[in-house]
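User: Can you write out an input/output pair for a complex, sequences first and structure second?

Assistant: Here is one pair. Inputs:
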Amino acid sequence: MGAGFELDARLTADTFPVGDLPLCRVLLMRDRRYAWLVLVPRRPGMVEVADLTAEDRAELWREVDRAGAALRSVAPCDKLNIGALGNIVRQLHVHVLPRVEGDAAWPGPVWGHSPAEAYGEGEAPRLVEALKAQLCL
Amino acid sequence: MGAGFELDARLTADTFPVGDLPLCRVLLMRDRRYAWLVLVPRRPGMVEVADLTAEDRAELWREVDRAGAALRSVAPCDKLNIGALGNIVRQLHVHVLPRVEGDAAWPGPVWGHSPAEAYGEGEAPRLVEALKAQLCL
């Protein structure tokens, strides 16, 4: 599976790779303010969730659940946010991130709020490893 | 089903009722700038998608698909946006709305962007009727 799949250049630039679940590539956004995952179904040419087969759609949402559970086990979470927007990057992707009261964008959405803040030395690899362990990757 | 379910007061105030799918109450936001549906699972006490049973979760996303298809058939859509945030209203709800290039919040998210614009006389009932027909409600 995934033949012909190529990750969008902007998603590549904005994230660290975490690993591949059965359907989705899992990415960590390069923004230390949020433990922010992006799930990208490894199917070429997908834009809308509705472009996926019914089977893939069901798997996508199961993987969103898995990502949410993994995030809650490694990061504080007052409310999980899930979003499939794609107004700028059209390759189908789903955001999953825990929000904490008083975080930079709270209570508004994180998308388009303010420039990302880079992770410090070694911080992102530690979070990636913790997430891989939770996701069995 | 739905015993003990009560719609959040803010969701009630901000929307027109469209009808009930098997799991979710379907609401139309009172903002004429977007054909903006909100789906609320009729289960008391739900906050996160993960609070639902696996069966209800699967049904929720199927109903999100149905809502998206209904919206595309009655309104222009360059990109469907789907969001489960709940940072302000904690009762579990999922936003589904078509976005159009150049709309008020484009390409940013609609949540928290700017005050709603009221529908004109008769506009909302016409859209509600069209959506009900598409959703077989």
